[in-house]
From TrEMBL:
It comes from Thermacetogenium phaeum (strain ATCC BAA-254 / DSM 26808 / PB). This is Beta-lactamase-like protein. Transmembrane segments: none annotated. InterPro entries: Metallo-B-lactamas, RibonucZ/Hydroxyglut_hydro. It holds the Pfam family Lactamase_B_2. Residues 37-226 form the Metallo-beta-lactamase domain. It comes from the Bacteria. SUPFAM superfamilies: Metallo-hydrolase/oxidoreductase.
Length: 262
């Protein structure tokens, strides 16, 4: 059965952060299940495993989920917390796979990749993705759709048989063209970076805004991810889960959450 694994569900600082002692971080120190590594996912088609983003925590995420084979990487955008783990795949490719790994990335990020990772040219085979173009992986289609995030950023519409899943970890609402494409999805996994005030309304959403987006696009179920926990008001995961009890179609993501695709 194909599945989508949420490798990480935290924003840039992660939870706990080494520099923070807020209630959310203290909760994660005490209960490891509330720790959050930086956001990313793995799509397992049944034959291949495709990474969606490569966070700085990638090695630990793959070890935790017992993923030993990677067949490609799809980057949503060129921000450190989403691409910095690419170097973790170098020795997998050189010592185990022994052929270059397909890397789909934003067209605007090709030059940035070459500047940041000049020694990885022999590790990855680059393919600039195109918005609204479907990419087939063993019968599962990934379609990059525009997100509102400052730099060129895609969310992904994942279609598998009867399942439609939208994955938008970094976005401030959705452009109308993307909202129409994801309308009525079975599952919307989306940016809920801030609790309380949204400090970056042009690039991220708050928990309340993410819930409203789910309603706007008529998602059957919404999962909140890319959670900072610390900002703008600190909140524990337990408190957040209790608050969301009044929203039966909304859940809080956790690292390692596995979602079956039909």
């Amino acid at each position: 059965m194909p599945e989508l694994i949420l490798l990480g569900t935290g924003a840039g600082p992660g939870v706990p952060s080494f520099f923070c002692s807020c209630p959310g971080c203290r909760e994660a120190w005490q209960k490891n299940e509330y720790s959050r590594t930086r956001s990313g996912a793995a799509l397992k088609t049944g034959k291949r495993t495709l990474l969606i983003d490569a966070s700085p925590d990638l090695r630990a995420q793959l070890v935790r989920e017992k993923i030993s084979v990677v067949d490609g990487v799809f980057l949503t955008h060129w921000h450190y917390d989403h691409y910095a783990g690419l170097g973790e795949l170098e020795y997998y490719v050189k010592l185990e796979r022994r052929e270059r790994l397909p890397l789909y990335l934003p067209p605007s990020a090709v030059q940035q990749f070459n500047g940041a990772f000049p020694n990885l040219a022999e590790v990855f085979s680059l393919t600039p993705w195109r918005f609204f173009n479907g990419y087939d992986f063993d019968g599962i289609t990934l379609t990059p759709l525009p997100a509102n995030h400052g730099v060129e950023t895609a969310g992904l519409l994942v279609e598998s048989g009867g399942s439609r899943v939208a994955y938008f970890t970094d976005t401030a609402g959705l452009p109308e063209s993307s909202a129409e494409k994801v309308r009525g999805v079975d599952l919307l996994i989306c940016d809920a970076t801030f609790y309380g005030e949204n400090w970056f309304p042009e690039s991220h959403m708050s928990v309340d805004e993410a819930i409203e987006l789910g309603k706007k696009v008529e998602a059957k179920r919404t999962i909140l991810t890319h959670l900072s926990i610390h900002y703008s008001r600190a909140v524990t995961s337990e408190e957040l889960e209790e608050e969301l009890a009044e929203h039966p179609d909304v859940d809080v993501a956790r690292d390692g959450l596995r979602l079956e695709l039909l």
